[in-house]
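Sample entry (338 residues):
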Amino acid sequence: MSRFRAAWLFLVVLAAGLLLVCWSTMISMPGHSYDGPVLPLEADEAVVRDRLQDHVRALAEEIGERNAARPEALEEAARYVEAQIESHGYEVRSLPFEYQGGRFRNLETTIRGTTRPEEIVLVGAHYDSAPGSPGANDNASGVAVLLELARSLASPALDRTVRFVAFTNEEPPFFETPGMGSRVYAHAAAERGDRITAMISLETVGYYSEEPGSQSYPFPLSLFYPSRGEFIGFVGNVRSRDLVRRSLRVFRDTAPLPSEGAAVPGAIPGVGWSDHSSFWRHGYPAIMITDTALFRYPHYHLSSDRPEHLDFGRMVRVLQGMEAVVRELATAPSSTNF
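Predicted structure, serialized as C-alpha cells:
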C-alpha cells in the first residue's frame, strides 16, 4: 500500500471514529428504558385514564376538526381548554393575535414559583388540528396530558414558575410561519426577557404498537433505535441535550413505559416538527415528547385520526412520568450539567 493510500485510509478511519464519538454523545442517554410487561392500571389510575379519554373525545369527536378553516370549532376548543383549567382554580390568560386577517389566541396558565419565580418551566401543546382531520392523536392527546398535568401540579407550588400554554396554529398552513401560535408566544417571551429554563412540547403521545417494523425513522436514526413503536420519545436539538438527558433520566426512574431519547441536529426531518422549535429560535432549551407521529402513526393528518386508535393506558404512564419530570425541572437547586 502506498503512503498516500495509507494516509488517506487513516484519515477516513479517523473521521469515521470522530463522527461515531460525536454521534454517540447525541444518542447516549442515562438510565435504561423500561423492558417489562405492560402493567395493569390501579383503580385510581383507571380514573385518570378515563379523564384523558374524555378530553380527547371532547376535542376530536364533539368538536372535531379545529383550525382556521373552521374558526368556530377552533374557538370551541379554546373554550374547552379554558374551562378545564379554570375548574382547577387557575386563572387563564387569553393571548390574542392577528395574522393574515384572522384572529387567534394562545392560552396561558401560571403557577408562580416560591424561591425562583423568575425561572420558568414551560409545558405546551397545540390545540388545533390539521385540515381534514379530527386530530385525536395530533394533538388532542397532547392537550389531554397538558390538562391533567395542570390538575396534578396544582399544589404544592414549586421553586420555579411553571407555565402551561395551549398553542394555536401549529398545523399547516401556519407551521413555521409568523402566524404559528408558538412562534408568536416565544417571540413575545424573548422580547420580555423571560427566563425559560426548560420548554416541553407534548406532541402526539397516544399511539403505540408492539408489531415488528411498526416504527420508522429518518436516516440515520434508523441505525440506532428500536423497530417496534412501543416507546415514548424525548427529542431535542444538540443545544438542548442536557434537558433531554435530565428529563429522560427522571422519566425512566418513574414510569413503567419504554422510552428513547435523542439530541441531534434540528435539520434531521421530524426533530423540529412541533412547537419546541419556536423556542430554539430564541436560544431557549426545548424538547418534544412524542410517539413520533408520522414515523409510527398510520392515521397521521387523516380523517381517521380518531380516539379509538389511542392507548389511554399508556398515556397514563406518559402523564405519570411527565409529572415527575416537571417537578424535577421546577425544583431547586439545579445544575447546567445534567
